Amino acid sequence: MSLSDEIKDENKNWYVIHTYSGHEQKVKANLEKRIASTGMEDRIFKIIVPTEERLERKKGEDKVVKKKIFPGYVLIQMDMSDESWYVVRNTPGVTGFVSSGTKPLPLQPEEIEDILGNMGMKKPELKIDIDPGDQVIITEGPFKDNTGIVDEVYPEQRKAKVLVDIFGRETPMELELSQFEKE
């Protein structure tokens, strides 16, 4: 069964549940244990904490880190019934479903496809944690220790245009991502 077929199965809708921020993995583990202990494997199928890989620069080194896309939320694929709702709702750490009043709202197939795509189930591009307007400090080269403001980012080339104040004038410089870091 392909990802698209799995997303569109009528009995398997995706729902969003609220959790305490920072407890998403613990809630996922609690849900998995609770599903096994109550025999709900035929009603509750998948639990996902949406994350994406980002490139961060710390102490002069690039590192790929996983960042939560929606802190405080967990996605769950299930066949909604009173029993499955009760099992999920009464799991430690779950504060509720995203809903319109009392009835949980399933995600649209396009929404879950986008989320899963951002998580790497489709080939995502690596996001860089530098944005135009960010203040940076140059760590290498002749302008080391000068500060500047990111004007443009070129992720494919792993470069950015940084505006640096030289003799009272804003001067654009194209720098490698390894030559500066966020202040």
Automatic annotation (TrEMBL):
Q: Which positions, given as ranges, span the membrane?
A: none
**Key word Transcription regulation present:** yes
Question: What SUPFAM superfamilies does its record include?
Answer: N-utilization substance G protein NusG, N-terminal domain, Translation proteins SH3-like domain
Q: Which Pfam families match?
A: KOW, NusG
Domain annotation NusG-like N-terminal: ranges: 11-119
Gene Ontology biological-process annotations: DNA-templated transcription elongation; DNA-templated transcription termination; regulation of DNA-templated transcription elongation; transcription antitermination
Q: Which residues form the KOW domain?
A: 129-156
Q: Which domain of life is it from?
A: Bacteria
InterPro entries linked to this entry: KOW (IPR005824), NGN (IPR047050), NGN-like_dom (IPR006645), NGN_dom_sf (IPR036735), NusG-like (IPR043425), Rib_uL2_dom2 (IPR014722), Transcrpt_antiterm_NusG (IPR001062), Translation_prot_SH3-like_sf (IPR008991)
An annotated GO cellular component = cytosol
Keywords for this protein: Transcription, Transcription antitermination, Transcription regulation, Transcription termination
**What's the stated role of this polypeptide?**
Participates in transcription elongation, termination and antitermination.
Into which family does the record put it?
Belongs to the NusG family.
HAMAP family in the cross-refs: NusG
Q: What is this protein called?
A: Transcription termination/antitermination protein NusG
**Gene source species:** Halonatronomonas betaini
**Classification of source organism:** Bacteria, Bacillati, Bacillota, Clostridia, Halanaerobiales
